[in-house]
Amino acid sequence: MGVKHHQNLLINNSFTESHLSYKNNYHKIYGTMCCIVPYKTIALICQLKTMSIKGFITKIFFFLIVFTQTIAITAQTFLVSRSSNKPDDLFKILASKDSLLFDAAFTTCNISQVERLLDKEFVFYHDNGYSNKTTNDTRTAFLENIRQLCEKKSKNEGMNMRRDLVKGTLQVHAINNTEAVQTGVQRFYIITKNQPDQIVEESKFSREWRKENGEWKMIRELDYLVNTKFNSSPAIPSSLYNEISHMDSVLFNAFNNRDIETFKTLFTTDLEFYHDKGGLTDYNYSIQSLKNTAAQNNGLRRELVKGSLEVYPIKDYGAIQIGAHTFCHPENGKMDCGTFKFVHVWKKINNEWKITRVISYDH
């Protein structure tokens, strides 16, 4: 089927659905009138002979109130159904707003654009962990923080930052036609010339949006489950950090390329693999899992989240590796991704690094 024909079908189907919705709602209103008016009219005529003038007027007044409210409610339902946002359209609109917000704040320093995205009642809440209080900024304070950051950047005094939205985490939940909630996971990085970008925060966010005069504006944001403890990469090329970083690349190059023989050599045979959903498994199970993945040929690939890697030494044993990684595979014409956290315990045996323990969590 050609693209043009497919588009025409969509347009025709959309028109048909809209037309049917209009007809259905029209019949609701018309049916209400047809059912209520004759019934009440006949009832009133029958009661006229035995009813006083005052009683008759009271009945008429009551009937008009009920009738008017019924029509108003039915008409309102009709109008809501005609103006409702399709979920996919709303997702795209708010995703675009998300991108626009951080481009204006961190890249172009377009404060006016940020102002247009924020409702006059906007409040920003930031969770600071169990031991610290949650802070909140008014719209004025939030804009001033961005303004100061941009001023320092213009004088080459401030730091450059970027914010990444974690793939596959963005969700939008419509409350009604004028209100919606947007959630996701984000990461913030400091950008330094000739150095790898350094991750400084990972957090979940929840935003409330409200539609005013045809425009969606943010009225509240809460950033929570904030993690700011990350281990920076040492500058010395022969450092433990760089050794483990290299071994991580070797391990998951083997995984992505379904190189089972190389993959097998990177674990000890007494491997213990702890998974928060799957429980405890061993070496043989892990190798068989890769074989199964290779047989499925579903395009599953792993990528280390930039800036998330932490490495700590274990005296007379090896090292602990902590990080986050994203697994993606194509599904229904688009990439389906999930980001999870992990801990690897590496042991140096005869000058070769092997993993003895794996903890995979936050699924």
Give a topology summary:
Blueprint: H1 3-48, H2 53-83, H3 87-107, H4 111-117, E1 118-126, E2 135-138, H5 139-154, E3 160-165, E4 171-174, E5 179-191, E6 198-212, E7 215-227, H6 240-256, H7 260-264, E8 267-275, E9 279-282, H8 283-296, E10 301-304, E11 310-314, E12 318-331, E13 334-349, E14 352-361
Parallel strand pairs: 1-7, 8-14
Antiparallel strand pairs: 1-2, 3-5, 4-5, 5-6, 6-7, 8-9, 10-12, 11-12, 12-13, 13-14
Give me a quick take on this structure.
With 363 residues, this protein is of the alpha+beta class. Helix content is 43%, strand content 35%. It contains eight helices and 14 strands.
Task: Tell me about this structure.
- This protein has 363 residues and is of the alpha+beta class.
- It has three domains: 81 residues, no CATH class; 141 residues, Roll (Nuclear Transport Factor 2, Chain: A); 122 residues, Roll (Nuclear Transport Factor 2, Chain: A).
- It has eight helices and 14 strands.
- The strands form two sheets. Strands 1, 2, 3, 4, 5, 6 and 7 form a seven-stranded mixed sheet that branches. Strands 8, 9, 10, 11, 12, 13 and 14 form a seven-stranded mixed sheet that branches.
- The chain starts with a helix and ends with a strand.
